[in-house]
């Protein structure tokens, strides 16, 4: 029995994948959801593109998973792809800042974490939760180890 040759691993061009998602995602056949939204943004002079995580997951699960694990880096690529499509349409980038906002419409999204389920492992990852904010206070760190030195004698 022979084993198939593994394909060489090529780096994923994330900006290109986001551009393809924006241009090619169809909500219904013939209705390009995000391309139409970008056309509206271009016409109205806006600077924010709203995408649904479920749409990205249906279109490109690899990028969706990467966005879930490292949203900060991938949102930069998503913004770059958004700017590229605006430039391609002949728009002059009038705003200094452009934004891509990710939201969800389903309650059972893979991003959903109940408030009581939030843990340290969720730091720096994309999560969705719901609740009512009752009170907000500053976080006071606890000192685990401390070192004090006398200014006069150095003890």
Characterization of the model:
The protein is an alpha+beta fold. 37% of the residues lie in helices and 10% in strands. It is built from 5 helices and 4 strands. The strands form 2 sheets. A two-stranded antiparallel sheet has the order 1-2. It has a two-stranded parallel sheet with strand order 3-4. It is elongated, with a radius of gyration of 22 Å. The mean pLDDT is 86.
What would a concise description of this structure say?
This protein has 155 residues and is an alpha+beta fold. The protein has helices spanning 14-24, 33-44, 53-59, 61-69, 71-88, and strands at residues 26-28, 31-32, 48-52, 99-103.
Strand content: 5-15%
Derived from helix and strand composition plus strand pairing, the structural class reads alpha+beta
What strand line-up does the widest sheet have? 1-2
Could you tell me how far the N terminus lies from the C terminus, measured between alpha carbons in angstroms?
74 Å
Average of the residue pLDDT scores: 86
Helix content: 25-40%
Specify the biggest β-sheet: 2 strands, antiparallel
Spatial shape? elongated
Q: Order of helices and strands, N to C?
A: HEEHEHHHE
The total strand number stands at 4
Structural topology:
Blueprint: H1 14-24, E1 26-28, E2 31-32, H2 33-44, E3 48-52, H3 53-59, H4 61-69, H5 71-88, E4 99-103
Helix pairs in contact: 1-2, 1-5, 3-4, 4-5
């Amino acid at each position: 029995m022979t084993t198939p040759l593994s394909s060489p691993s090529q780096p994923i061009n994330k900006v290109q994948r986001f551009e393809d998602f924006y241009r090619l995602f169809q909500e219904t056949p013939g209705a390009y959801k995000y391309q139409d939204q970008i056309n509206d943004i271009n016409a109205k002079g806006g600077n924010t593109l709203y995408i649904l995580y479920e749409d990205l997951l249906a279109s490109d699960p690899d990028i969706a998973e990467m966005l879930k694990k490292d949203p900060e880096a991938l949102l930069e690529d998503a913004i770059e792809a958004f700017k590229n499509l605006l430039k391609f349409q002949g728009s002059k980038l009038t705003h200094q800042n452009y934004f891509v906002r990710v939201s969800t419409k389903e309650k059972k999204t893979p991003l959903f974490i109940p408030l009581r389920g939030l843990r340290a492992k969720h730091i720096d990852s994309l999560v969705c939760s719901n609740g009512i904010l009752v009170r907000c206070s500053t976080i006071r760190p606890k000192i685990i180890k401390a070192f004090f030195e006398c200014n006069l004698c150095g003890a």
